[in-house]
Design brief:
The structure holds two protein chains of two kinds. Chain A contains three helices and 30 strands. By secondary structure, chain A is α/β, with parallel strands linked by helices. Chain A folds into two domains: 138 residues, no CATH class; 272 residues, no CATH class. In chain A, the strands form three sheets. A six-stranded parallel beta barrel of chain A has the order 5-7-29-27-26-28. In chain A, strands 1, 2, 3, 4 and 30 form a five-stranded antiparallel β-sheet that branches. In chain A, a hairpin with a 5-residue loop joins β2 and β3. The relative contact order of chain A is 0.12. Chain B is built from two helices and four strands. In chain B, α1 runs antiparallel to α2. Chain B has a four-stranded antiparallel β-sheet with strand order 2-1-3-4. In chain B, a hairpin with a 3-residue loop joins β1 and β2. In chain B, 49% of the residues lie in helices and 27% in strands. The chains are: A alpha/beta, B alpha+beta.
Chain lengths: 421, 168
């Protein structure tokens, strides 16, 4: 009986006591669970902070002047900005910043003491979190001023037999995915950058010059003129006209009669033909300059258009350089020759041959047609002018050459800051 | 009633009382301590899970921005692309992310010493003074409202994750 009464007193409140005794353990376990989740979140956020810190420090790399403490401060500023300083624990204000000796990359390691709430009940200390990242400055691929747009053609840019393409301050690029997207065979490619979606290939015959080495498998470069709409010609001024007959006074072409329908041939007439500034259309026919002495074609665009545009063909066996320039205003600003795309299929190949030099200011734009240079033809930028070629494919053979230069500023490579790891 | 029967009854009544007291204490303990504890821990867990998703949305927008630096002027439109990237990251979790939204804004500052913002904010076409350069900043804010299981937590837990990165 006594035992029973004592037992009763003893057991009354036993559950409450048990709960009270167990409470620190239960709270501690629950708290540890919550805190483990928090620490995991803080680890993830600290990694984002480290990524931002490395990017922030890497922005100072191109100038090559920042001291170690400046890099550290830039890293901390970005780490705090991307996280708002929240939920990354207590950040060590002295991150480890390691810069490559050649200023190409910078690595940042952030460490912080994790926030701790309920797990302290169990006497578990907050862990030290750590995250690292590396960022660097890489040279942007130069904008191509010699660009082959075809996405599949083999030898989309072919340079053979002492042909050469020089792109000073800009790039040479082929959008073709072919294994010979750019093919060099006893020729010369010199540019700020050389690249192709497919492979930049060389013959093993020797005698090749490629500076710098080509980059295969690069990202495609967009057609810089894709958004342009070709202007529409008016009524025909001439039909299948030939301006080759001998003439005592020069042929003078003006904007009052600027639409040539059908095949049109100019040159060989012993005069110096003159084109007044403006747009000249050749509709459904070839435009052939045959031994033409065109010294006055400034501020002009030749638009080869129609449902079936013809080809631009230039042959000149004299040693007199021809000079042409594109208009600087209007819908064809900057474009000297523009072969539009036919309704379907590709446009006929444009060609330049013969020993003379054509010095131009402006772009040769044939998105659906080839441009083939042969037999010592030189297609070069006029001094101080921008010149480029954007064609479906491009072939330069037999000591012919293209010498392109970019628009001011557009081809200058500046560094891009990228996260490396 | 025999003495034996009385003892038996007494013992039975006492046992019932004891069991009753223990049950009440256990019920109180469970109702006041254990259930709120479980509700609280699971509510905090849900909030943490959602906060992790918002973090990942922020990360998606930041990585988009770093991979597509473009030009300062283009960022007035690219800001929404970054927000869309973050939105895609959120949508990947489906309806499980409660009432989440992402917004992005772009600000331009001249910076001195390569990284120190010089207030006030400028525009994408501003020419900064000598020794300073124009920097483009993207701010991404992701918010969500977590519906908790109730007491001891509020019924709706508002969450905000916000971060600013330099993109150019």
């Amino acid at each position: 009986m006594r035992r029973s009464v004592m037992g009763l007193h003893h057991r009354r409140g036993a559950v409450a006591v048990m709960i009270a005794v167990m409470m620190p353990v239960v709270l501690g376990m629950a708290g540890l669970g919550v805190d483990l989740g928090l620490w995991q979140r803080e680890t993830v956020r600290l990694q984002l902070a480290a990524d931002a810190a490395a990017m922030g420090a890497a922005r100072l790399l191109p100038a090559q002047t920042a001291s170690a403490s400046t890099l550290q401060a830039a890293a901390l500023a970005e780490a705090n900005a991307v996280t708002g300083g929240a939920h990354i624990g207590t950040l060590n204000q002295q991150p480890t910043v390691t810069r490559a000796a050649n200023w190409s990359t910078v690595s940042v390691i952030l460490s912080s003491k994790a926030d701790s709430y309920l797990s302290q009940v169990l006497g578990i200390a907050a862990p030290t979190l750590s995250a690292g990242a590396t960022a660097g400055a890489i040279a942007k691929p130069a904008t191509a001023c010699v660009l082959a747009l075809s996405s599949t053609a083999a030898q989309a840019i072919a340079v053979n037999n002492m042909g050469s393409i020089t792109a000073t301050g800009c790039g040479i690029f082929s959008d073709s995915s072919s294994a010979t997207a750019i093919y060099l065979n006893s020729g010369k490619l010199i540019a700020q950058s050389i690249g192709a979606v497919g492979t930049v290939a060389e013959s093993n015959s020797g005698g090749n010059t490629m500076t710098p080495a080509g980059t295969s498998g690069a990202a495609a470069q967009a057609n810089p003129f894709a958004s342009l709409q070709a202007p529409t010609p008016g009524a025909c001024s001439y039909n299948n006209a030939s301006f080759t007959a001998w003439k005592a006074t020069a042929y003078q072409f003006t904007q009052s009669a600027n639409v040539f329908c059908g095949n049109t041939t100019i040159g060989g007439n012993s005069t110096t033909d003159t084109f007044q500034a403006g747009v000249y259309y050749v509709v459904n026919g070839n435009l052939t300059f045959s031994n033409a002495a065109v010294t006055q074609a400034q501020g002009v665009t030749f638009v080869l258009t129609g449902s079936s545009p013809g080809a631009f063909s230039w042959t000149n066996n004299s040693s007199t350089p021809a000079s042409m320039s594109a208009p600087t205003t209007g819908t064809t600003a900057g474009i000297l020759v523009w072969q539009t795309c036919p309704a379907s299929g590709s446009a006929p190949a444009n060609s330049m041959s013969g020993g003379s030099t054509m010095q131009v200011s402006g772009q040769f734009y044939a998105p659906c047609g080839a441009l083939n240079l042969s037999n010592n033809a030189q297609f070069t930028a006029a001094s101080g002018s921008a010149m480029g070629v954007v064609a479906s494919t491009l072939s330069v053979v037999g000591s012919a050459g293209i010498a392109a230069t970019p628009n001011t500023g557009s081809g200058s490579a500046s560094a891009q800051i990228v996260l490396l790891q | 009633m025999s003495a034996g029967t009385a003892r038996l009854l007494h013992r039975t009544r006492c046992g019932a009382q004891r069991r009753g007291t223990a049950s009440i204490e256990a019920a109180l303990g469970i109702a006041l301590v254990l259930i709120p504890l479980v509700l609280g821990v699971s509510g905090v867990g849900m909030a943490l899970m959602t906060a992790n998703r918002l973090d990942q949305a922020l990360q998606a927008a930041v990585f988009y921005a770093w991979a597509n630096p473009g030009t300062p002027a283009a960022w007035s439109a690219q800001g929404s692309s970054a927000a869309a990237a973050a939105g895609t990251a959120l949508a990947a979790y489906g309806a499980a992310t409660p009432a989440a939204t992402v917004t992005a804004s772009v600000a331009y500052y001249c910076v001195s010493g390569g990284y120190t913002q010089v207030p006030p904010a400028v525009t994408s076409t501003t020419t900064c003074p000598s020794g300073q350069s124009l920097a483009t900043y993207l701010t991404v804010t992701a918010t969500a409202s977590v519906i908790s299981l109730g007491a001891p937590l509020p019924a709706v837990i508002p969450l905000v994750v916000s971060g600013t990165v330099r993109v150019l």
